[in-house]
Write a structure and sequence with these properties.
The protein contains 24 helices and eight strands. It is α/β, with parallel strands linked by helices.
Length: about 475
């Protein structure tokens, strides 16, 4: 027998039986037999990690099986894909028909097996911009140039630019947190684009938590977790969006913790985002929560009216560049649009898109009344009810069987102080009020008192089940 395809088919059957399905699927199955420049046979693994594993644990036995079947007494060497580039399949070269042989060698054996999960892609922007965007899950319009700076996000923007510049001495990991729809995903996209532009050779990996979870689950099902781990741990920068969604999934959290630890030890850059601060992610296990909070927690706060108007103007400018609209909108129209779209920046952009599509070239002549008619239901409220400080105070007081006036009083007993801190925490989570504004509404307290109260509840929630249950119950009540 001299055909490499047939030899590998037989040898791989025996090897699988000897080392087991798990190691075979993780390290051998994703590999392929190729021909090197000197005409020798090589087993090409997808990663350097898999190459090293094969050399240490399987190469000697692999060659014993191969030599027992190969009439030409050839030996196999092992290389990783980065070392050999696009070497042709061995049987294709030897038979002179690459098109027919490649699919057969890709199977590695005549018996069927589960294909390995596709590796997670980086963002090679310099190579092919449009294709890289689709592959990496990034959106090409979410860059620093299109991000609108305001009072609630200025600090977050400054930190994002520092991370993207690969500056030394930055905090690691960086954790952006805040309400949905106010720019966290935009910042992570912008970091990825800029970091790759400045260092085209670097491997920048952007993932949503949902994709991280689904890819990891598929890797476990396919027994290809080694390739999954390598695709993450070889990153120079890892950005994981909406990390709160890994909560409650034990094995996924363990893998994320291992990845996080490995990357930090190697000095790699890590960026996360979530709808809450790390220590408020009560469904995330304590060790992972502690690692998430070990770097810099950077709040992205809900935008004020001025920022929302700037966002609306910026969106119209972008639509104008695309030829969707002509001219500028009346300032009164934009003001009404902002005031009657109480949701997040995403919903505001949706309302702006609706106005632009309806007005078109008549944008500059659209009046306030006509804008109301054009937008219709889009301007009559957002997807969720606006929660007020007064409502939070009343709900908390009722929950703890006390008076609302007690929360505003000077009393500092634990029976009053703790509910007051919970109320402050909920105000920061569910309203757009600043720390000083919240303090004024709690009996004229200083903003540092509010900040201390919010951080105290964030610290206690992972440790005190009763406080966590109280916050969860109050949140459900407030959301109706």
């Amino acid at each position: 027998m001299t055909d490499p395809d047939r030899i590998w088919s037989e040898a791989s059957l025996r090897l699988r039986a000897e080392i087991g399905d798990g190691p075979f699927s993780s390290y051998i199955a994703p590999s392929a037999v190729r021909l090197d420049n000197a005409g020798g046979l090589i087993l090409v693994t997808p990663t350097a990690y898999a190459r090293d594993w094969v050399r240490k644990n399987a190469l000697r036995r692999m060659n014993e099986l191969w030599l027992g079947l190969d009439g030409l007494n050839r030996r196999l060497e092992v290389r990783c894909r980065a070392e050999v580039g696009s070497a042709p399949p061995a049987s294709a070269v030897l038979s002179g028909n690459a098109g027919d042989a490649a699919p057969r060698l890709a199977a590695f054996a005549s018996t069927p097996h589960i294909a390995p999960a596709a590796p997670i892609s980086a963002t090679p922007i310099s190579a092919d911009g449009a294709r890289a965007v689709r592959a990496a899950g990034l959106q090409d319009r979410l860059t620093f140039d299109s991000f609108v700076e305001g009072q609630g996000n200025a600090f977050a923007l400054a930190i994002a630019k520092q991370v993207a510049s690969w500056a030394d001495g930055h905090f690691n990991p960086v954790f952006f947190c805040g309400p949905y729809g106010y720019g966290k995903t935009h910042l992570l996209n912008a970091i990825a684009w800029e970091a790759q532009r400045l260092r085209p050779e670097a491997k920048v990996v952007y993932l949503t938590a949902e994709r991280f979870l689904s890819t990891f689950v598929k890797a476990m099902q396919d027994r290809s977790t080694a390739a999954f781990k390598e695709s993450l741990r070889s990153a120079d920068m890892l950005l994981l969006d909406d990390v709160q969604f890994v909560g409650g999934k034990t094995s996924t959290q363990e893998e994320l913790l291992s990845t996080l630890t490995a990357l930090i030890e190697d000095g790699k850059r890590i960026v996360f985002s979530a709808d809450r601060a790390p220590m408020a992610l009560t469904e995330v296990e304590p060790r992972l929560r502690s690692h998430l909070a070990a770097g810099l927690t950077c709040p992205v706060e809900a935008g004020d009216r001025e920022l929302k108007i700037a966002v609306a103007q910026n969106r119209l400018k972008a639509l104008s560049a695309l030829g969707v609209v002509q001219g500028e909108a009346n300032p009164e129209v934009l003001a009404q649009l902002v005031d009657r779209t109480p949701g997040s920046m995403r919903e505001l952009e949706g309302a702006v898109n609706t106005l632009a599509a309806a007005a078109g070239s008549r944008l500059s002549s659209v009046s306030v009344d006509e804008a109301s008619t054009l937008l219709g239901a889009a301007m009559r409220g957002g997807p969720e009810r606006r929660i007020t400080v007064d409502e939070i105070q009343k709900t908390v007081a009722d929950h703890f069987n006390m008076k609302q006036a007690d929360l505003l009083s000077e009393r500092r007993t634990r029976a009053v102080a703790r509910p007051r801190q919970i109320a402050m925490y909920l105000c920061k989570q569910h309203t757009t009020r600043s720390y000083p504004d919240i303090g004024r509404r709690f009996g004229g307290r200083d903003h540092t008192t509010v900040l201390h109260g919010v951080r105290k509840i964030e610290e206690l929630m992972p440790q005190d089940d009763q406080i966590a249950r109280d916050v969860e119950a109050l949140t459900r009540k407030l959301r109706g």
